[in-house]
Structure formats: C-alpha cells, structure tokens
Amino acid sequence: MLPATLPLLGMPLPGEGAGVAAEAAGESVLPPAGLALLRWQWHEVEAPYLVAVWILVASLAKIVFHLSRKVTSVVPESCLLILLGLALGGIVLAVAKKAEYQLEPGTFFLFLLPPIVLDSGYFMPSRLFFDNLGAILTYAVVGTLWNSFTTGAALWGVQQAGLMASTVQADLLDFLLFGSLISAVDPVAVLAVFEEVHVNETLFIIVFGESLLNDAVTVVLYKVYNSFVEMGSVNVQPVDYVKGVASLFVVSLGGAAVGLVFAFFLALTTRFTKRVRIIEPLLVFLLAYAAYLTAEMASLSAILAVTMCGVGCKKYVEANISHKSRTAVKYTMKTLASCAETVIFMLLGISAVDSSKWAWDTGLVLGTLLFILLFRALGVVLQTWVLNQFRLVPLDKIDQVVMSYGGLRGAVAFALVILLDKTKVPAKDYFVATTIVVVFFTVIVQGLTIKPLVKWLKVKRSDHHKPTLNQELHEHTFDHILAAVEDVVGHHGYHYWRDRWEQFDKKYLSQLLMRRSAYRIRDQIWDVYYKLNIRDAISFVDQGGHVLSSAGLTLPSMPSRSSAAETSVTNLLRESGSGACLDLQVIDTVRSGKDREDAIMHHLLSGGLYKPRRRYKTSCSRHFISEDAQARQDKEVFQQNMKRRLESFKSTKHNVCLSKSKLRLRKAGRKKKDGSADKETPNGKPHQASNLPDTAAVILAVESDEEEESDSSETEKEDDEGIVFVARATNEVFQEHKVPGSMDVCPSPRVIPPSPTCAEKELPWKSGQGDLAVYVSSETTKIVPVDMQTGWNQSISSLESLASPPCAQAALRAARPRACAPPRGEELRDPLAALATPAPEPHAGFTFTPSLAKAGRSRSESSADAPEQQELQPLMAPEDHGCLSPGTANARWLIQFNRAGRL
Amino acid sequence: MGSAHSMSEEVRELVSKTGFSSEQIEQLHRRFKQLSGGQPTIRKENFNNIPDLELNPIRSKIIHAFFDNRNLRKAPNGLADEINFEDFLIIMSYFRPIEPNMDEEQLERCRKEKLRFLFHMYDSDSDGRITLEEYRNVVEELLSGNPHIGKESARSIADGAMMEAASICVGQMQPDQVYEGITFDDFLKMWQGIDIETKMHVRFLNMDAIALCH
C-alpha cells in the first residue's frame, strides 16, 4: 500500500520496492548543487510517517465500513478489517514482491495491546466482575489449563497416529507449547465481537473476564513450555515442573499486585492535582502504562497488571479528577483502544499474506480446529456443571453454547507463535500457518455466525436501559437487606464480605485516596443522581436554540430552530467577546423586542454555553484550568437539571418547550456573578438603534399573539405556567431549598449570586425571572401540579378574554410573575421602585389595534414573545392580585425563599 | 422443640410450607435459638444483639420487615410483637434462591413475592402506596451512613426518584393529574428488566461456619 501511495505523495522516484532504499539512492544521485529549493527527507520521517499512515488507513477503512449500516450489522468490524488487511497485504505483496508491514510481536505487546486492555479494565463494570469472579477465575485458570493440555496432547496423538505429514517435526512438548498459545481466548477478538452482539451482561462478563484473566495462565504455560523446549525435554528435572506450577502463582498474583500498586499510586497522585488539572488524563495513561511495562519487565502477567490497575483505580480517580479530565480520559482511552484494535486486525490480515512463513499441513490445521472447538465446549460444559453446584443462579445450556462458541482466538496467539524460535521449534512454520487459520476461522466464521446464533437461541440480551435513580436506590436497599439477612442468618457469605469491604473502603481507602471534597460527597446514590442530572442538562443544552425559538411561537412543537434564534445566537456570541460597556445604552429605557430577545438569549447562553465563555476569561494559561469555573459550571448544570427533571414530570407536548425556555430564563438570571455584568451588557446593543422604531409594534405583537392564543387553545395558556407543583399546604419551597442543599455538599459551597445583565439591573422588567417555580410539599405527600389551580382561574379568564381585550387576561397572568420576581439584591430595590413609574407605557401600547401590531411584527421578534409577556405584565395590573389566590400564595413563598437564599 | 419424633413432624410441615430443606431448617433453627437466647420467640431487641447489623444504615427498616404482618402473611397491616420460628422461616424464605426447575408462572410468582417484600419495606403505613414521604424516609436512612450528605440532598434525591417513578409509571401526565405514590403495580413496572431473582437471594446452605462465628 505505502509504496503504491508514495508516487502520489510526490516521491520523485517511482522506484518499486522499499521506499527508503529508493529515496536513499535518489539522494546519493543528486549532487548538492547549491541551495535546494525543495528537499525530500523521507528517511527522517519514515517511521512515524508510516505509523500515521497506517492508522489513517485503518481509520478511513472504519469510516467506509460504517457508511453502510447493513454491512456492519451483519459482519463484525473485526472481520472486515481482517479482510481489508488481506487485500492490502496482497497489494503490498504484488507491488513490493515481498511481504511488508507485518504484525511485529514487539509492537503488538508494547504498543497495541496495552490501550485495549487498559480500556477494558478501566471501563469494566466492576460490580458485575466481582459478583462473577468465581466463575471467571475458574474458566480462566482451569479452563485454559484444560484447553492447552488436551489440545496439545490430542494433536500429539494425531501425529502419532500418522495423520500429519512427516515434515511436521514436533514432539509432545512442542505440541503442548502450541496448545498453550492456541488455547487462550483472546480479549481483543472477544471484545470486538461481543460488543456488537449484546448478550446479557453476566454472560458477557464471564466470557470477557475469562479472556482477560487467562493471560496469566497463557503466559506462564507459554514460558514454561518454551524454556522446557529450549532446555530439551530430556534435561527437564522434576523440580522444574514444580517451579512451573509455582510460577503460575507468581506470574498471576505478581501481575495483579503490580497493577494494584500502580492503581494505588495513580489514585494517590490524582488526589493532589487540584492545581494542575491539565495533566490528570496524562497521569492515568502514564501510570497504567508504567504498570504494564513494569509487569512485562518482571515477566509477570502484564495484561493482568493493567486490568487490575484499571479496575482498582477507577473509583478514586473518577472522584478526584475534574469533569473535563474524566471526559478526556474516556475519549482518549476509547480512541486509543479502537485505534489499536483496528490496526491489530488489519495487520493480522496483512501478515497472513506472507507465504514464506507458512507451511501448510492439512492434518494439523484440521486437527487443531476440531480440537479447540471440541475441548472448549467440553471444558465449558464440565466446568459449568461444577460451578452450577455452587452458583445460586445457574448458567443454563444456552449460556454454555454461547460461551463455548465465543472462545475466539486472536492476535495474542499470533504474536506468541511468531515469537517462537525456529531453531528450537522446527515445526514453527506449521504452527504459524495453523495459528493464522485458527485466528481467521474464529474471528471470521465464528464472529459472523455468533450473532445469528445468539438470535436463534434466544439468548437473553442485555437491554440497554438507562440507569434510573429508582433502580439505583432499590439496588442499594437491596444490598443492605441482603447483607442484613446474612447477618441475621449468621452466614458470612458474599454479601457480608462485600459489605465489610465497602466499610473498610469508606473508612480508610477512600479517605486516603480521595480528595477531601470528593470524599465528602462520595456516595453512589448521589453519584447516579448527579450523573442523571448532568445527562439531562447536556441533552437539554444540546437543544438550546430550539427551545428558545419555539418559546414564543404559536406552534410550540416546531421541530427545528428558527433562523431568528440562530442569528441572535451568533450575534450574541460575537458581541459577548467585547468588554465595552456603552453607558448610553445601559440607561436606555426603551424596551425593544430585539433587546429583550437578546437578553433572553444571553441568559440562555450564559446558562447553556457556560463553559466556553468562562474559559475565555479565566484561563489563559495552558497549564491551569480554573477550578473555580469548573466547579461553578458543574454546579449550575446540576441545578438546572434539578429543575428540568422536575419539569419533565409534566408532559403535554407543547408544555415542554414553553416551560423549558422559561426555566432557563429564570435560571439564567441567577447565573452570573455581579462582576461579570459589565462585560455582558453589550448584548443586544447594536440592535437597539434599528429597533427603536418598531418598539411599540413589538409590544403590541405580544398582545396580539396573546389573543390568538387565547382564542385557539386553552392548554397553551396553561402551558405558560410551565410545570408548577404546589403543595396543598405549602410549607416549604421545595425547589429552592434543594439547590442550596445540594451546594452544601459540593466542593466549594459558595452560592452563586445571580447577576442580571446591566439592562436587567436598570430595567427590572427586562428580566424574565421568577416566573416559574417548582414546589413539592413537605407535608402532604401528594404532588399537585399548580396548573390545576391556576389553570382553573385561567380558563375562566380566557373565557373573559374572548369578550374583552387581551389586556384583562394578561393582567391576570401578571400577578404571578411579578410577585415571583425575586428581589435583585438590596441595592436594586431603589432603581426598581424608581423605574416602576414609567410603567404606563405598555398600556399606551394597547390602544393600538391588534392588526396594526401584527403588521409590525416580524418573525424573528416573535420568538421572544412569551418572555415578553411576563416581563411586561407585572407593570400593568398589580391590583389583580386578588383573583389569583393560589398563584399569589405561591409567589409569596418564593419571595420569602429568595430572600433567605440571598441572605 | 419436643421429642425427636415431633420435631421431624414439625420439620416436615415447615419444609412443605417454606420450601427449605430439612437440613437448612435445622441450621436456621440453631441460629434462631442463638438469636432468641433459647426463647421460643424473637423480639425486636434480640436483633440488636447482632453486632454486624449495627453498621447497616437501614437496619431499623429491615428489622421492621421481620415483624411486618404483611410479610408474615398474617394480617394486611400492623406489626407483630414477636415472631416464632415459623415466622422466621417465612421471612427467610423470601430470600431463597429460585429453583432451577421452575416454570414461567412460578418464576413470576416468586419474583412478585420478592418484590412485595421490598415494597412493604418502603410502604411503611401499609396503604399500598409508597408516598413521597415514605420514600424520603428510606432514602434518608440509606444515606445516613454518610454524614456529609445532608437531609436536604437525601430529600432532593427522593423527590427526583419520585418524579422519575411518576414519569415511568404514568408516562404522560395530564396537568390535573395527581401522582399520589408508587403502587405495587408501578413498583413492578420499575423493576422491569432487572432480574430480581438473580439478585435477591442468600445462600442458606453450608452454614456450618455459623456456630464458629458466634
């Protein structure tokens, strides 16, 4: 492939064969005639260039495969990659006349394997893993031993029976060696295939755990036999056998110990990275890799070391590192693993083309294929039978079939067979050929058929339901119950020990390894709760523009963003960069629709796109990411979610959009620090000049819109309230209490004071705050949407509004928002009162006829309609309080609470 | 418990009633005696003597469950003051692993039984609903092990869970709809997809270690 591409890259010499040689030759021919304008220095960049090109080819291939859903749903990616490798190898062979770019064992073990193992170890569902540890260990140790012995012995038997060509010169020891390397289930292959099959998690963890843990056994057997072969079978003393058995324990336990030691260091290191967040992801990779290399150096099981390192450190590392680092670790790990996996399979395909290493023997190949399948199945059945005597949840026959069939062999076997010494193992070429066939057969044939098989056998699939809070709670309750029952029964079983371990962990390990702030809030239930909220926030923010655009439209279910929202987003983004504050505009009292819309947008962005903006201002250094911003942002996302989750409780379709946007408005108001207010002010400024003329029209537009709404549907009226739960006997404002509550336990328990934009400060009606509150009573245990109550009032009022001008009804609605508007700090009181005087303005606006208003309304302005309603109305009819008793009652509560929160 | 003959008679009855093997029953009986201090019945105070139980955050709820008449299949509500060995076995039988040869129907019933036990633990006032208040109680107890997580957080978690439960069970709520609490049917719905039978069990066999431990 590469020589073929070199001409395309502009290589001056179209020489076939190794590019380097050609290049070297080319340079020697050209005399250094003065200053060269352009010089090729291929040999200097060759090695990294080749690596990069290979990875690129592999990645492109992956993209191509996934272009067609149909293909990838039937054929596992690993198969496709192997086939691609075969094709590429063929091309290389045809062009270069000799095989190039093979899977080198050194490269494989030192660079390609670690990321995959680390990825699988780190993201291993540890609870599941330890729940099934007994079974996994049995299959990994006993199963692998069984497989290698029986396969080796049976192959030897076949040779003795004369079914192999006489050129296969191997004795029993050679066959046992071959058996040891061919019998181990390969983690890379298993992962590649099983990830696409989605069998139930128990089955998956058993097969996959086995493939990871059997590495220790494979390594030991391989090394022991290899040294026996090198010594010569006659020189092997009985004591060597004993040593062999002992080395099994040394290698496996030693590997695991190395992994755990590094996991400990890793966790401990991340505890102190508070000021250098940027190196957190690096630490994870470095220490895990160091664990791998250390184990490899001490000829312990490196795979086991990395697996244990990943499993062991995850809990503490995840608690210590920042949210961003967590994401970085996750993605880097997945990228590296997927990269390595892709390259491994491709190189496997390419390596197979090299016929010079091959020596075919039909008897050996068929025999091996038959035996590995047969003995794997036999071993699984026997072990499962034994295990089922002890397991409370037995593995049934179908599971056993899948487990036997899922024993895929892969690159580990190939790399090991390449490593054999031909002078000591004369039959190496035969073994290589057989290994390649076995690997291809298992990956391609079994990989292709396992999916239909799983479907046909109706294997219990894993249902990918999202983790729910209830589930987590119940499962925790459950664990405690089971532990308690074991205590009562007096049997110190699994649950007992797990309980003990958790207590030990909580008391000592976590305290030692977790940063104090993280340790304090460390609780699984809390974690799940937090994660769910974050997830909701992200999914919510993802639809940010959509939410706003649909806010004021009469078609709330409008599917896509309106262009208006987008333009204002871009405007806002552009403008927020400038720190200038034009005072003239700050005190400008004219309320334009655009202005308001921009303020809303600003709040929305400051809520939703908090991260990037913060980063701009606070972190110019490459080495430090402001912890402050990070914590604050996490917290905010979290808080938003609380609200959203409560809100999502409610359901009518249009509701969602409307209330969402309002939530956001209110939320956003509390968001920023006062200090940043000056910088934020320019939002919407440039529009003001242009918008001045149609201000009146805009205001009217709101009202006319209102009228349309009231005519068309009742529900939309109610929707404006968003979702509001009110307590029957409102004793406590649930939502508002909750936020501070959650903050108490957050790393930096600082309540972020809401900071309005300057416009909002000066012009209180510009803030859309306080129009939504969520309440759950503490006394009554029933959750009653407030709509039930306000809705009633509104339905009456909307009937009235059919007869009378919309302002009557609007006034009615006004009561709540106004009352709810939280005091914006004491210093703002006065401006508020002072500015309340120009209030009659909107009234003037109402004298215009709705039709006029409509004429003046543009599409883009309409997107801000709904918030405008709330902003304007408080100024219009404060005397209407009386007619909305439930609403106002709530509102008062809110006020009280907000004050408390502020103080 | 009387002579050897009547004992075996009794044991046979218990075997058919609770599904434990006679071996297990004997072992449990030994343990029962140990707990009760030789008395024929166990009272709540007896549970306080189990040292391992002390660290369990929801200890009181669990002990409560042992005396719950609903779990004892005696009355639709209320608490028993003391339980005898048979009651003890009945409670324990909730934690029996499922038999491998059960058919679908039995499996479903077994699953429901187990879930009902759990449900009763949440539903402390026996009205067939887990109300928000009850839910909060449980969550608060669950989190009581961590002194840094305050009541407020526990509440918000419970509230969040309640919301979630409502959205799962009722789906699209009408604006005027009131979600009063999780009924048992809702509870079943929430557990869908989680194989409780693979989780809710305790090994009762091989309990020879018991005597050694205490």
UniProtKB/TrEMBL annotation, chain A:
Chain positions covered by the region annotation Disordered: 664-723, 841-883
UniProt subcellular location: Cell membrane; Recycling endosome membrane
Comp. bias (Basic residues): 664-673
Keywords of the record: Antiport, Cell membrane, Endosome, Ion transport, Membrane, Sodium, Sodium transport, Transmembrane, Transmembrane helix, Transport
Protein name: Sodium/hydrogen exchanger
The UniProt record lists the keyword tRNA-binding: no
One GO molecular-function entry: sodium:proton antiporter activity
Principal cellular location given in the protein's record: membrane
Record family assignment: Belongs to the monovalent cation:proton antiporter 1 (CPA1) transporter (TC 2.A.36) family.
Sequence ranges assigned to domain Cation/H+ exchanger transmembrane in this UniProt record: 55-456
NCBIfam families the UniProt entry points to: b_cpa1
Gene3D superfamilies: 6.10.140.1330
TM region positions: 48-67, 79-96, 108-124, 136-155, 175-194, 203-225, 245-268, 335-353, 365-386, 398-418, 430-450
Gene Ontology cellular component list: plasma membrane; recycling endosome membrane
Topological relation to the membrane, as annotated: Multi-pass membrane protein
Cited InterPro entries: Cation/H_exchanger_CPA1 (IPR018422), Cation/H_exchanger_TM (IPR006153), Na/H_exchanger_3/5 (IPR018410), NaH_exchanger (IPR004709)
Any one Gene Ontology BP term: sodium ion import across plasma membrane
Bias (Acidic residues): 703-722
Pfam families: Na_H_Exchanger (PF00999)
